[in-house]
Amino acid sequence: MSRSFNFCSGPAALPEAVLKKAQAELLNWHGAGVSVMEMSHRSSEFTSILESAKARLTRLLDIPDNYEILFVQGGASTLFAQIPANFVTDHKTVCYLDTGAWSAKAIKEAKKYADVIVSGSTKEQNYTTVPSWEELNLDPNAAYLHITPNETIGGLEFDDLPETDLPIIADLSSTILSRSIDVSKYGMIYAGAQKNVGPAGVVICIVRKDLLERSDNEALPSTWSFANLAKNNSMINTPPTFAIYLADLVFEWLEALGGVEAIEKVNEQKAARLYKAIDGSKLYSNPIDVAYRSRMNVPFVLADESLEQTFLAESEAAGLRTLAGHRSVGGMRASIYNAMPVEGVEALIEFMRDFESRYGA
Amino acid sequence: MSRSFNFCSGPAALPEAVLKKAQAELLNWHGAGVSVMEMSHRSSEFTSILESAKARLTRLLDIPDNYEILFVQGGASTLFAQIPANFVTDHKTVCYLDTGAWSAKAIKEAKKYADVIVSGSTKEQNYTTVPSWEELNLDPNAAYLHITPNETIGGLEFDDLPETDLPIIADLSSTILSRSIDVSKYGMIYAGAQKNVGPAGVVICIVRKDLLERSDNEALPSTWSFANLAKNNSMINTPPTFAIYLADLVFEWLEALGGVEAIEKVNEQKAARLYKAIDGSKLYSNPIDVAYRSRMNVPFVLADESLEQTFLAESEAAGLRTLAGHRSVGGMRASIYNAMPVEGVEALIEFMRDFESRYGA
């Protein structure tokens, strides 16, 4: 069987060119005589990989000098606790937007460390839209405002940032590198790698340097302190070296394609075509406010729920892999990250049309 | 250039057969149409890998039914904090043996969570031996006794466990699967993968189930609670899937070789030959009490320190990679984990003899 079109929400598809390069040098990286997996993290070879990844990411996102790039272990879910643990010092409160399942998880962890003000929530609208920026309840003395600009499960995405003087901390796990952003508007960005960056096992963090001072705190676990990670170039202990290497290869691939601006156009096209197919159908539908539909994660339900298992079995057989929605919500979900080629989206649309013609009312 | 003999202390050499298998199936695992790196961690394919890894490890170490195997992110250094955070509940104290640099780091992190009793220390002997078990200062009400049976930097290893009713928690990062152990004597074993198990990015934990109850604590970060990890089969969030897959391949390789008993004999031979070469030389020496010399990490110094850089440059050129000692102590160190073939140790000994004949006094 050849390679499938892989719609998994994460760990997600990687560019085939990246996997082929990793495969070619898996036993012997650049003549070093060893795999990247077998190198000391403090070797000149691995250090060159780490520095390359940082330099490429800096170029791709135009990261200003007053930010540090950190590679952190544990997954974004660990960061949900690690962020308040780092930044709640003299502050008593933290502000969170509640726009979906991942916001809610971040809020749950933050409550272990601070008084959480839910500054705005669309839970009562089933998370189908975002709160009004004008009506947010923001505490000017809070440590930060946390937002989740892409809700991977619900399929909601927003680009505009709330107006506030609080440092904005954003979980960009699913959208990093998929669209242009102005890094200078954020206090901190973090993103689990396993969507648009590389394999699971590392979180990309971009932190404004002035905020790091708050986390220079001897009471924190050594490997949790962002200040300590920055001082040690993400190598307090052995980092997940192979995941960082894959990230560097993905960044290289993206630069060769023309960078974030280039892939953003492709992502707009892919999402537009898929939503058009959904909206033009009687079988499929997507509940999210059109202005806030995610370009990366496209959930849809079938008018006749009893067809779901047939849809999943037939799509899988057609080489369209992992289209089931998140176990907490059911339905379907097509995650179409950077590594999903236009042809994959076209094949999905073609399959959906054919399926509807055979099973639709 | 062909593959080197790699003496790195970690990330360490992996079995070539394992790397070749991973290479062959890197783009398409068992006809699934995707790389292991691209699979949902909740897919039937990845679940089968995780269960295979657990079953193989259970067989290899003869793990009793009343233990849970966990795959934890963050590295053993994160566990240094996570362990007291999990187990210090009604207990006020924890006991630690101080037998080297890694013990000392574990103690430093534990102090953030509990009153640490250093039950025995050989710091004054430069960590060249172990404390007398009879003279340990053990608090019967402590939460546990933490030990580091292999000090990777100093090159010290001990096999005998102290007599105590306290649950023994052991950092076996460098020795797991290198020698037979009786798991039932431990409360918890943990080991960073990047020595004898797989690539960096995952820690293997084996925890006695009755101890897990203590960590069923809502105040802990969700991804830190061992109880929560056990309930969720190590998948509270996305685990480092590729590292777990490599671990499964390493376990498979070890089973095919005849298991821990078989590799232990090889490891004894390799270490005996190398120490014999050191002891029989006028140029090289190792300071550790002969009874407690590590089979895995063999540090040695040159009588003439000014030869160190020449030794490192020439050994590297001879395909003997990463022989420098830890940056904190200098000198040389040959790490000869399971994946180091006998031929690698023989090549090193041959090189050392030749070097001595050319540069020795």
From TrEMBL, chains A, B:
The record describes its quaternary structure and partners as: Homodimer.
Species annotation: Marinomonas mediterranea (strain ATCC 700492 / JCM 21426 / NBRC 103028 / MMB-1)
Q: Which domain of life is it from?
A: Bacteria
The record's annotation in Pfam families points to: Aminotran_5
Residues the entry annotates as binding pyridoxal 5'-phosphate: 76-77, 102, 152, 171, 194, 237-238
Its recorded name reads Phosphoserine aminotransferase
Keyword DNA-binding part of the UniProt annotation: no
Q: Which UniProt keywords apply?
A: Amino-acid biosynthesis, Aminotransferase, Cytoplasm, Pyridoxal phosphate, Pyridoxine biosynthesis, Serine biosynthesis, Transferase
Instruction: Identify the gene encoding this protein.
Output: serC
